[in-house]
Each structure stands twice: as structure tokens, then as C-alpha cells.
């Protein structure tokens, strides 16, 4: 029996994603100057206004207003007619220091257990499946790809769609067969903000003939074959989308947690990522479990896997590790046995996760739009700024949790 499954993505110009990007830009700015900074930064954006709040403890100082304006400008809100633009928006900062009670739990040698503990209690999930080359679910992968390409078209000087504005959303519905494999693309929904006096039919034609056609060309063959002439399209289904961004809808940090992860294909612990330094296991443990899940699927342990971990605030070791292969395991081990092996194979204490993936580097802004998972790991050179204002070049790695470099280790451990 076939069934349908849908995932959505939103562009970097969506109000909630503006908030996420501001929060992560502030986080990166502090880590650029002080790798030990403790940051929990929340942002609200609305018509003509940005409010930044949260708790930050750092030896360094960051010009919050400058970071906010640069972020908004780079997204593309640079015209007064948008009713929200980088130059004229008001900015209110209400940041204060992190609670000393929390700090002693996440600082080595300070808390009850002396070791660096988790920044909070909670549950985190990692997931992987063999539907795509990225080992991600197909609906969320395509949704991200469509909006990334739409953003490139908008920002191109040679754009054939000069009427595009920054805010947009996409939904992709995939039909699956009875073996849980993608059968065809069923429906694509795209809502894109646009200039006044643009005909909706023209937008629809451009979306189909420019955006989607170019997307299909670069897809792997097995995914190309899922596109046919029976796909249902809903392009700007209200008929008009001129008012958008923070003028059309208030944005908040952490309100797109399903967009950020797996598009609803697995469970979610509820914790957001953006604006949080890696001592917060909401973020670091979610990255670590994604890494483990991806490497397990790449090693052939199962076709699909979900890993849950939980923590107690201030305590270093996970309270539990739970595994679900959804009946797709390719080995003789039970899911409980796989969980036990994971516990022995991977060190999931917060300081060890941070050390393995170098999570004190300023690597977070790029994660704040188009998903934290399923991205390609790559390196970038940046200038690190010290308190003495001395600048030095450092190479950092973005999306290190997406590397597949534990496959041989896993195969040896499972004897396959």
C-alpha cells in the first residue's frame, strides 16, 4: 500500500529564519573572539524592529547592532518598501550574563561532578536513511534544494526572476511504495514573496520552467526519475505574496526545528539549535547523534535508524541511549544491542562531543538556514580576533558531523 509524506523548508528571508540567523551570527561573533563564550541568544523580528535577548558570558565584546544589521542586509532586506530593512530597523538588546548556577554545571571543575556536564536536561534525536546520497529523507532534501536554488536566482545579477523578494516557503510531498521507498514526487508547493503588480501565472511559469527544470538537471538519476508530468503544483496559492518577511509575520528564534532537522521523518526532542553554544546538548548532542546515525547507515547496519539520547543538567554521561531501526536492520543484532555498542564506541559526554567536532569554532551561521543536517562538510579560512585585536588566520570545518569517517570502525565492531 503506497502512502504520501510531506516536508517543508523556508528560505533565509523567512521571519523565523531571520531570527535564527541573527542569533547564530551573534554566537559566531562571540566565538570568533572567545572560544569559551557561553551563549544563549534569542531574537524576535517584526515590522521595523529587532529584539535580541538571552544570556551571554564572555571575556570579549561584540557590537550586537552591527552584527544584526549586517545579517539582515546580507539576507536581502535592503529596501524601505519591504517595511523591514537593515538600515532603518530599530534594535533593542536585553542580553545579560548566564546564570552562575547553570555555569557551574557546564564548566569543568566547577560543578557537583567536576567534569563538564550537560547544559540542560532533555532528549535529542539523530536520524539517517538511505533515500538520498546525503542519507536524508527525500522530502526535506528536495524542499531545501528548491529554496536554495530560488535564493541563488533572486541574488543573481543576471536573474530571470528580478521580481523575487526574500521570503519564501516550499513543501514537497513524496509518494512511497509499500517497501517505504520513494515512488514519485506527488506535490510541490512554493510560496515566494514578489514585487507588486506581478502576474501570478508568470511566477508559476518561471518556477516550473526555470527553477524546477534546472533543479532536475543536477539531481542524481534515481531522483530525476521520480519527477513526471503528473506532479501537482501549488504556486503562490493565495494569489498574491507582496507583504512578507517580518512585516507580514513576526519571527522568533527556534520556531523551525523540524525544518532544521529531518522534516518530520523522525521524532524530535523539542530543543532548538540556533543561538546556543555547544555546551547546550540540545545542539551538540543532536549533531553527535546525526553523525552516529549517518555512519551506521553508511556502514550497512540498517537502511533507516533513529537514535535517542537524554541528559541531566550538570551530569556528563547520557542518561540513556535508545535505537530504533524500524525493522530495516541488516545485521543479527537487536536494536538494544546496537544501542549498547554505540555507547561503547562513541563518547557522548558533552566535552568529548565538542572536542571531536571542534564545536567551539565559529561555524554556526551557515547552519541557520536550509537545515543543520544533510549538508556537505567543508573547510573555510577565517580571521580569529583576540582581545589584543591581533588577527590570525584559522581553518575551520563546517558541518563536521556530516562526515562519514567511522564506517570502518563500525564494520569492525559489528564484524561485517
Radius of gyration: 22 Å
Tertiary shape: globular
Give the overall pLDDT as a whole number: 94
Please report the distance between the alpha carbons of the first and last residues.
33 Å
Order of helices and strands: EHEEHEHEHEEHHEHEHHEEHHEEH
Helix and strand content put the structural class at alpha+beta
- What is the percent of helical residues? 25-40%
Helical element count?
A: 12
How many strands, which pairing sense, and closed or not: the largest β-sheet? Answer: 4 strands, mixed
Unreliable parts: none
Largest sheet, order of strands side by side?
1-6-7-8
- Fraction in beta strands: 15-25%
* Number of DSSP strand runs: 13
Write up this protein.
The protein has 416 residues and is of the alpha+beta class. 31% of the residues lie in helices and 25% in strands. The protein contains twelve helices and 13 strands. The strands form four sheets. A four-stranded mixed sheet has the order 1-6-7-8. Strands 4-3-2-9 form a four-stranded mixed sheet. It has a three-stranded antiparallel sheet with strand order 5-10-11. Helix 1 crosses helix 2 and helix 9 (281-298) packs across helix 11 (350-357). The mean pLDDT is 94.
Amino acid at each position: 500500500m503506497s502512502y504520501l509524506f510531506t516536508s517543508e523548508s523556508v528560505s533565509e528571508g523567512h521571519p523565523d529564519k531571520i531570527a535564527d540567523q541573527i542569533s547564530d551570527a551573534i554566537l559566531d561573533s562571540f566565538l570568533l573572539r572567545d572560544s569559551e563564550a557561553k551563549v544563549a541568544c534569542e531574537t524576535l523580528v517584526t515590522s521595523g524592529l529587532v529584539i535580541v535577548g538571552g544570556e551571554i558570558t564572555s571575556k570579549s565584546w561584540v557590537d550586537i547592532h552591527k552584527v544584526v544589521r549586517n545579517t539582515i542586509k546580507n539576507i536581502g532586506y535592503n529596501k524601505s518598501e519591504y517595511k523591514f530593512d537593515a538600515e532603518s530597523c530599530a534594535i533593542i538588546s536585553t542580553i545579560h550574563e548566564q546564570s552562575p548556577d547553570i555555569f557551574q554545571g557546564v564548566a569543568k571543575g566547577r560543578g557537583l561532578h567536576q567534569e563538564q556536564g550537560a547544559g540542560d536536561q532533555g532528549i535529542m534525536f539523530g536520524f539517517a536513511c538511505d533515500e538520498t546520497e546525503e542519507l536524508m529523507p527525500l522530502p526535506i532534501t528536495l524542499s531545501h534544494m528548491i529554496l536554495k536554488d530560488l535564493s541563488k536566482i533572486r541574488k543573481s545579477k543576471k536573474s530571470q526572476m528580478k521580481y523575487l523578494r526574500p521570503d519564501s516557503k516550499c513543501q514537497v510531498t513524496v509518494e512511497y511504495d509499500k517497501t517505504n521507498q520513494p515512488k514519485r514526487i506527488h506535490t510541490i508547493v512554493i510560496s515566494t514573496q514578489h514585487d507588486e503588480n506581478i502576474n501570478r501565472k508568470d511566477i508559476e511559469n518561471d518556477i516550473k520552467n526555470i527553477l524546477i527544470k534546472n533543479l532536475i538537471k543536477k539531481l542524481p538519476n534515481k531522483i530525476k526519475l521520480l519527477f513526471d508530468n503528473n506532479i501537482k503544483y501549488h504556486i503562490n496559492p493565495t494569489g498574491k505574496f507582496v507583504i512578507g518577511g517580518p512585516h507580514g509575520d513576526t519571527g522568533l528564534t527556534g520556531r523551525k526545528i523540524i525544518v532544521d532537522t529531518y522534516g518530520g521523518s523522525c521524532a524530535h526532542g523539542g530543543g532548538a539549535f540556533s543561538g546556543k553554544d555547544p555546551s547546550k546538548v540540545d545542539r551538540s548532542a543532536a549533531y553527535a547523534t546525526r553523525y552516529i546515525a549517518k555512519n551506521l547507515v553508511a556502514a550497512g547496519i540498517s537502511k533507516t535508524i533513529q537514535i535517542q539520547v537524554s541528559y541531566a543538567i550538570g551530569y556528563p554521561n547520557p542518561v540513556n541511549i535508545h535505537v530504533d531501526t524500524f525493522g530495516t536492520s541488516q545485521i543479527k543484532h537487536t536494536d538494544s544491542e546496537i544501542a549498547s555498542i554505540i555507547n561503547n564506541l562513541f563518547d557522548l559526554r558533552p566535552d568529548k562531543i565538542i572536542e571531536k567536532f571542534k564545536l567551539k569554532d565559529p561555524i554556526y551561521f551557515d547552519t541557520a538556514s536550509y537545515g543543520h543536517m544533510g549538508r556537505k562538510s567543508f573547510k573555510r579560512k577565517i580571521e580569529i580576533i583576540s582581545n589584543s585585536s591581533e588577527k590570525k588566520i584559522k581553518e575551520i570545518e563546517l558541518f563536521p558531523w556530516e562526515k562519514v569517517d567511522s564506517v570502518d570502525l563500525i564494520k569492525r565492531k559489528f564484524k561485517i
